[in-house]
From TrEMBL:
Stretches assigned to the Amine oxidase domain: 11-399
Source species, domain of life: Bacteria
Organism whose genome encodes this protein: Aquirufa rosea
Single Gene Ontology MF annotation: oxidoreductase activity
UniProt name for this protein: FAD-dependent oxidoreductase
Any Pfam family the entry gives: Amino_oxidase
Taxonomic lineage of the native organism: Bacteria, Pseudomonadati, Bacteroidota, Cytophagia, Cytophagales
């Protein structure tokens, strides 16, 4: 039997390969980079573990629970909440859902009002029966958040920057249904990072697969006339093709122009420091009305001590601009942390022009793939998240088997 060819070894492609392997179906997984993982990779650098872009694993994602051996990832957890920039100081805010003790402090500081809690509780009831990211809620996330009439402080200092960080989008233009889906995950689940970095997730999926079925450092150049043509000149015969490439690459292989604005970019900078004072395993959110280029920053080694060598801490800073330099970032951070010179050493930055796909742009790609008998998978075929990458990978494999 000819193999099923999977193009791309990001989470979706790896997941598809795992499902085919379990079902004893022959496959070849082809990845153009020298390592697997796509957007979920980590690397060792001067004793630090750096993820290719700041991201977290939501342990409440159903497909994550089903597909990963979470215990083996040795997860470290964030506290539920964030540091907020209020009146030119950092104030910790813990989720009232998971830290009831901190609620009085939040009331006292004016971060949240009683009416906000009531509205959140109503919203929580709603998402118990409807938090499907693909339901057809016409409003954008920002329009929906505004329509909920939360107090100004809660909305502007917490909700808005928190979701700007999740969506990597200042405008919060993703559909409101996606906002509800993420809200449910954050209210009910925990955000975590594996001891060995986010790349350990991809590695766990790879480790199960027979090495002879995985080809790294080889790019699929074309998908014409029932053949898969590789960058090394090889031509593969296949039973079926699962196209698990990132959206731009998938569009190129299918010869479809990609609409402008379909993809959101980001850049994560890593710095080493001797210490970081703020307590808590929390993200620091910067309100975008501060005219800041920075979305959020965090002391990652407070959450996962293994990501920094002894005596050092690892700071990550994420921006939406990819043409910003570490010098500019440091100058901004000084404004938020010390009003003087910050003694941080720049380690490395990861520019990710294709960070997250926006919903609503993929109809033509899906139609063209369908016409050519190619099975599409990847986060963009559902919604931007690891849950969708895992779920769509499984779906693609099941459809290839049927
Ligand atoms: C900065 C950042 C932060 C994020 N934060 C979160 C978060 O906190 N929580 C969350 O759930 N999700 C987050 N995400 C999203 C999550 O990482 C993605 O949804 C998921 O990794 C997408 O996986 P994928 O397999 O669909 O695509 P990709 O990871 O893009 O994989 C596609 C693969 O195809 C390969 N490829 C492309 N073309 C070819 C070709 N011609 N031949 C061979 N191989 C090819 C690519 O090299 C790549 O490895 C974040 C993403 C980024 C970038």
């Amino acid at each position: 039997m000819k193999p099923i060819v999977i193009i791309g070894a990001g989470i979706a492609g790896l997941q598809a390969a795992n499902v085919l392997y379990e079902a004893n179906i022959p496959f070849i997984l082809i990845e153009k980079q020298a390592q697997v993982g796509g957007r979920v990779q980590s690397e060792h650098f001067q004793g630090f573990i750096l993820d290719h872009g700041f991201q977290v694993l939501q342990t409440s994602y159903p497909e994550v629970q089903r597909s990963l051996r979470l215990k083996d990832l040795d997860l470290s957890y964030f506290d539920a909440g964030a540091y907020l920039w209020l009146d030119h100081t950092w104030t910790s805010f813990y989720s009232p859902w998971q830290h009831t003790f901190a609620l009085f402090q939040a009331f006292e500081k004016g971060i949240i009002h009683f009416s906000d809690l009531f509205k959140l509780a109503k919203l929580w009831l709603r998402i118990q029966w409807d938090a499907t990211p693909e339901t057809n809620l016409q409003l954008s996330s920002w329009e929906y958040i505004k329509s909920l009439n939360f107090s100004n402080n809660f909305r502007e200092s917490f909700l808005k920057p928190f979701f700007q960080g999740i969506f990597l989008d200042n405008q919060l233009s993703q559909p409101a249904s996606l906002f509800l889906f993420y809200l449910k995950q954050f209210l009910e689940g925990k955000a975590a990072i594996p001891k060995a970095g986010m790349g350990a997730i991809s590695q766990q999926l790879l480790d199960v697969l027979p090495p002879s079925c995985v080809r790294l450092g080889v790019e699929v150049k074309s998908l014409e006339n029932g053949k898969v043509e590789l960058s090394n000149g090889e031509v593969l015969d296949y039973h079926k093709v699962i196209l698990a490439a990132n959206p731009t690459a998938a569009a190129t292989l299918l010869d479809i122009p990609l609409a402008k604005g379909a993809i959101l970019q980001s850049k994560t900078f890593y710095f080493s420091a001797d210490k970081f004072e703020n307590e808590g395993k929390l993200l620091h959110l910067i309100p975008q009305n501060e005219e800041s280029e920075i979305l959020h920053f965090t002391c990652l080694s407070k959450i996962n001590p293994h990501c920094a060598p002894q005596g050092k801490v690892l700071m990550s800073v994420t921006t939406l601009k990819v043409d910003i330099s570490e010098g500019e970032v440091l100058r901004e951070m000084e404004k938020y942390l010390c009003q003087g010179k910050l003694n941080w050493k720049f380690l490395k930055a990861f520019s990710i022009p294709e960070s997250l796909p926006k919903q609503g742009f993929w109809k033509h790609i899906k139609q063209k793939a369908h016409k050519k008998g190619i099975i599409l998978t990847g986060d963009y075929t559902q919604y931007p998240s690891l849950q969708a990458a895992f779920a769509s990978g499984r779906l693609a494999a099941e459809s290839a088997i049927s």
